[in-house]
Design goal:
CATH topology of the largest domain: Na+/H+ antiporter like fold
Shape: elongated
Number of strands: 6
Strand content: under 5%
Radius of gyration: 30 Å
Strand order of the largest sheet: 3-2-1-4-5-6
Distance between the termini: 59 Å
Structural class: mainly alpha
CATH class of the largest domain: Mainly Alpha
Number of helices: 27
């Protein structure tokens, strides 16, 4: 099978094979998946084994990975939190971007290039690669820490800066031959279209998106919810692109608008597979786009400016970080992570080439400088070893996506989950709650509870809910089958998390214990004990005798469960009925072990 237009099946197989092998190999070497993807792209690209000869089309399609990544980041950035971060975004971010632009532009001017070309070249390198930095932060679990959030703030401002920088390109464009005026001017129509795109996206996101997902959740159209999630992301990106703005910024705005939605975790889960795959393809395409012939022909120029730009940018980043109160360790980490250029530089350089500020040769050389710097970043970070997650404090590791921490996760917020979670709320612990009952979520919201829509049987939803950082998980779902599946998932993927699971009956408790639950609580058994104790008090039995009898009943029940696990239901039933009266109460269960009472 082949394709006359687009990518053939053979090329898709090569891409997937390269992604799998490179990610596994480089992560095993401790160098990170990003460097592996880029290296694999160089190997299979036009200057390697030539398995793929047209990387431009691949790069354009793979940019959707960055778009989806910005959407996921937006989901974790609630409007209130963005407002709290305004000082970091516009203070710290502006200081770093402004000073870096001045210093890097000066490098170009000092080395003999025109002011306009030097400014564009330096400004492009200032725009750090959001994809590289965010992927590396995520691999190390640093994205949600305070230090990671400061880096995210700077990246957000840099992404916003692409819009005014593109506008500046038109003003810096040379005067057209035969004219006496500047070729660049303010295109008010474009400004109005861009502003309208932003306002329209905000209005639609505020009034329609939550209602749409609520409708799909009520009719339980799982595949439709996945399609709707992709529609929201790509639709927002398209609206921004039509308005002349950044696609990634459109996806980010859509994510922020949905960040307070109860469907946030489910949306993140639906987007995650596409985001991860496309982002990997993006790095592969970056590697394939590296023009080794240009690097070979201009290797002195490329190496000089890679070193000069990365060195001076790193120095400025370190000084700004220290100026804004960062520790030397945090400043060094930020310096290494953000010293490279980024993908938005390609957009800026292409616009400058069309405007006549840069030549085609300069564009190719500058693009090579950007890509080489992106290749060097994960290598430098990996060898420096400054971003080891073990260096974080306990409180930072517990920090949740919304900054409130995530020590407990409750899966299922029905009658059992609601009561059990009160213990956690009463002691001030941050709790992440997910459920699939839309009506219940609405009622819980009315009473002030923040419950997210999410299917706990899906590993991606558990990750999005913060299970990776949770110390304890309460599984309180109604379905015994779902409870066992969720228990198995958490036990296998998050072994450090302690599991307390609601059990329906004795057999279910045995199955949960086998699945890995640390505590299995039978609701019928515990309720029966609570009912029996006041009955004895009414009949005049001493409190000490009631407590002793309760302890005996619990111990005998545990012993019966152990025997049933080893020898079957009949062995447990015989133990229960054969004990003398002074050691136990008579067996209340019928002889039929399959009856509901016998299983209670």
């Amino acid at each position: 099978m082949s394709a006359e237009h687009g990518v053939s099946l053979a090329e898709i197989v090569v891409l997937l094979a390269a992604a799998v092998v490179s990610a596994a190999l480089f992560k095993r070497l401790g160098l990170g998946a990003v460097l592996g993807y880029i290296a694999a792209g160089v190997a299979i690209g036009p200057f390697g084994f030539r398995a793929i000869t047209e990387p431009a089309a691949m790069l354009h399609a793979a940019e959707l990975g960055v778009v989806l990544f910005l959407f996921v980041i937006g989901l974790e950035m609630q409007p209130g939190k963005l407002w709290q971060m305004r000082g970091q975004i516009f203070g710290l971010g502006t200081a770093q971007v402004g000073l870096c632009a001045i210093v890097l532009a000066t490098v170009g001017i000092v080395t003999g290039y025109p002011v306009s070309a030097s400014f564009v070249a330096g400004a492009g390198f200032v725009l750090t690669s959001t994809a590289v930095v965010m992927q590396m932060l995520e691999e190390r679990g640093e994205r949600v820490t305070p230090a990671g959030q400061r880096i995210v703030s700077i990246l957000l401002l840099e992404d916003l800066m692409i819009v005014p920088l593109l506008a500046l390109v038109s003003f810096l464009a040379p005067i057209a031959p035969g004219t006496e005026s500047f070729s660049g001017s303010i295109h008010w129509k474009s400004v109005v279209i861009g502003a309208s795109a932003i306002v329209g996206l905000v209005v639609v996101g505020h009034y329609l998106l939550d209602r749409m997902f609520a409708l799909l959740a009520r009719i339980r159209a799982r595949e439709a919810m996945t399609a709707a999630a992709l529609l929201v992301v790509l639709g927002a990106a398209y609206v921004m692109e039509v308005g002349g703005l950044s696609m990634a910024m459109g996806a980010f705005v859509a994510g922020v608008l949905l960040s307070r939605s109860v469907y946030r975790h489910q949306l993140e889960s639906d987007i995650e597979p596409f985001r991860s795959l496309l982002l990997g393809l993006f790095f592969l395409a970056i590697g394939m786009s590296l023009q080794l012939d240009v690097v070979a022909e201009n290797w002195r120029t490329v190496l000089f400016y890679v070193f000069a730009y990365m060195f001076f940018k790193a120095v400025v980043i370190y000084l700004v970080a220290r100026l804004f109160g960062a520790s030397s360790h945090e400043a060094a980490e930020r310096m290494l992570l953000m010293a490279q250029g980024g993908e938005f530089a390609f957009v800026l350089y292409a616009a400058a080439t069309q405007a006549g500020i840069l030549t085609a040769q300069q564009n190719a050389v500058l693009s090579a400088i950007i890509i080489v710097s992106m290749v060097l970043t994960p290598l430098l970070v990996g060898t420096a070893g400054l971003l080891r997650s073990t260096g974080r404090s306990v409180e930072e590791r517990r920090q949740g996506p919304d900054g409130s921490g995530g020590r407990a996760v409750v899966v299922g917020f029905g009658r059992v989950g609601q009561i059990a979670s009160q213990y956690l709320f009463a002691r001030g612990h941050a709790v992440s709650i997910i459920d699939t009952d839309v009506e219940m979520i609405d009622v819980a919201t009315d009473f002030g509870f923040k419950v997210f829509y999410g299917d706990g049987t899906r590993l991606s939803v558990l990750r999005a809910a913060g299970m990776e950082d949770a110390e304890v998980a309460l599984v309180c779902v109604d379905s015994p089958t779902d409870a066992i599946l969720i228990t198995s998932l958490i036990k296998s993927e998050f072994p450090a998390t302690r599991l307390i699971v609601r059990a329906n009956d004795r057999r279910h408790r045995l199955a949960l214990a086998e699945a890995g639950a640390h505590e299995q609580v039978r609701e019928t058994f515990e309720s029966a004990l609570v009912i029996g104790q006041p009955a004895l008090r009414i009949l005049g039995e001493p409190a000490a005798d009631i407590e002793r009898l309760t302890t005996t009943l619990r111990a005998r029940d545990d012993r019966r469960l152990a025997l049933e696990k080893a020898g079957g239901t009949e062995a447990g039933r015989r133990y229960f009925t054969d004990k003398p009266v002074e050691e136990a109460t008579p067996d209340p269960a019928p002889t039929d072990p399959s009856s509901p009472a016998a299983q209670g």
